[in-house]
Amino acid sequence: MLYHKIFRHAGEEMYLYYPGAEQRTPFKRSALLILLDQVNEESVRKCMEDMALEDWCRDEEVILAFPDPGAGGWASMTHEKFRLYYDGLSKPDDDPLPTNAVGIPTLEAMLGTWHPMHDVRYVIGLGSGADYALRLGAERPEWLAGVWAPGGRLQPGTEPVAPMPVWLSETDAYTVSSFCRANQTDAMQGEARWCSRNPAQRVVEAALPVNGTSLRRVWKTLFRRVRRVNTCIHGDVTDRMEDARNLFACFVEDDRLDGKPHTWFVHVPRGIACGERVPLVVFFHGGSDNPAEAAEMSRVHELGEREKFITVYPWGTNRCSWNSGMEPDQEDDDAFSVALIRHMIRSYPVDARRVYLTGFSNGAAQAQSVALCHPEMIAAIFHIDSNWPGIRGKYCELDWRDVIPFQKAMERKRRYDFRMPVWYTYGSREVSYPVWRGSTQQHQYDFWKMYNHVEVRPTPAMGEAQECPCGVAGDEQEILRPSARYPHHWYEVQRFRDDRGENIYNYVVMHDKGHEVAEMDVALGWQYARRFQRLPDGSLLRVE
Question: Which domains does the chain have, with CATH numbers?
């Protein structure tokens, strides 16, 4: 259905087309913004009909947007105005989303929106919109993963500030050379040039008529291959994952675990020998995300193919988020998680001693919650970007006794003194970095240190002198530069030792990363976590 969206306070408008009727599915949707010279219902419907976009959007799961350039046209468009359109893709009205006590949109609000991920947004500029599409890609690359601009040209002096995959035609040498420099292209075949270190940084120069056939070609050969992730100030370009339906065994609304409908995706690596048992890694998605989005974000299954472990991506029971705090009036995601792990052990060649948890954001909180409440099942965790517990980005006094999973963890420790190896990764562009007393990070790491018999040293308060931006310096520090594709990525590892001298807790900062999973986040966590096994008596076995 085509919607006419009006931004009442700004006086702007655009048309939106959503694929199908279901707002929430376990698969990933992209967004395509088409810049037309004239935007009204007639011109939008004609464009969609001429390019046969309706069925294509449904098949490719693409949200379409047609922003109105206004009376001044695209030549007078500002990036501030365009940001309205970019931010307004998830619903056809401009009513603000109601939020909960910690400032996050409520479940009902999130379930009532569409969900175009920020890493897969693309622009097509037609007519005078082609010049603006290229300027947008050059000056605000963090907003887009790719641009097609037939006939478009950069104004002299406008240089792209970061790599931007583009399809160019009927343009000038300055525009081509500018985007080639930005993408650091050093390889070429036919109409395409790319960076040999990162082939997603790509420039295609080929004339195409503006029609549906050309759009599908650009989509298949460029847009569907690239995405932009928030791992530096302007984002890094990387490759896209194949359709989840082709990669995973997808169990959708399956009630075999506990009689309630649940969804999860499974990847089993090739080459498991008969009778062999391999590790299991569970990745919990972030708030408002789903299994396919989690898989493309983290690529845990690709690491599992190389390292020979089974991967499972579950979807929160409410199809949006995890009840990581175990609130009694919400879904019992703890029971779901445990039932899923037991099902995986029964149904696949999983070594029950080598079950590991990871996750992103709200999913990182869920990974911690499950490990704390069921330590006898989990060998180690390596979660990413958790702003739990506390209030994200704000000061908050918190007693661990008020956090239900913390309570349950300490109750279990009275019966047996479990220890849980932790490799935790955070980004330096996250809301609670540098780390001060009263932040989510301080509440989290103080508890894990206490739990694992690591000395708990005080975190400086806001305004106090701070030698270590991570809050508390580790017993050892290490700098890692593990990515060949992104040599500017670097990690600062704070290693902490327990009362037996064991490195049992690690606080890791990926510098210049925002709220995102970087290429090496999971790999570094796995390198640490795989050293541990959980024995039947609850103790840990370290295997070098």
Answer: 2-239 (3.40.50), 244-536 (3.40.50.1820)
